[in-house]
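Bumping my old thread because nobody answered last time. Still need a sequence for this structure:
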């Protein structure tokens, strides 16, 4: 088994340094494959969204204020992005918690995916927080050929991403 890259000091939680596991991906990189859970028994991979533009919104935990606001904002945007764009929200929350939150929040346009089983996504996309086993807030926009076209790694876990830039990056690919 190969040693995964650790990046220390590139992110913080309330000012305290965090260690992110995995590579720092950039626009132009090929998007790594992943296995994420839609439910306890159903998993999906990058190929399940072949040919579509993918706006991937990564949140540490859906039950926190910024994660809640981020997911609601991208749910609103999803309605205007068209059928060729899929908005995926990834967290390490259990699929049960994600489904409960969506029901309570009325969120129905975003596909909720869980990285709880093995942090496969977090490691592949360089967002796994070593200290918490959660995924760091980040945004990835991937084109229909699975090339990353936009990346935002948030330097502070409690900050909001640049919603408009991410949405515009997705719109530009349609």
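Sorry it took so long. Here it is:
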């Amino acid at each position: 088994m190969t040693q995964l890259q650790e990046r220390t000091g590139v992110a913080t939680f309330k000012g305290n340094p965090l260690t992110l596991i995995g590579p720092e991906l950039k626009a132009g990189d090929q998007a790594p494959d992943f296995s994420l859970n839609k439910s306890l028994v159903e998993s999906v991979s990058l190929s399940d969204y072949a040919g579509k533009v993918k706006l991937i919104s990564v949140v540490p935990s859906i039950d926190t204020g910024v994660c809640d606001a981020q997911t609601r904002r991208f749910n609103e945007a999803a309605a205007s992005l068209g059928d060729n764009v899929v908005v995926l929200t990834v967290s390490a929350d259990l699929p049960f918690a994600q489904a409960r939150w969506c029901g309570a929040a009325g969120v129905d346009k975003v596909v909720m995916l869980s990285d709880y089983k093995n942090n496969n996504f977090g490691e592949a996309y360089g967002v796994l927080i070593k200290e918490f086993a959660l995924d760091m807030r980040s945004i990835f926009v991937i084109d229909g050929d699975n090339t990353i076209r936009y990346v935002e790694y948030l330097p502070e876990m409690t900050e909001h991403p640049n919603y408009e830039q991410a949405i515009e990056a997705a719109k530009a690919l349609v």
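Residues 51 and 167 are 18 Å apart (CA to CA). Let me know if any region looks off to you.
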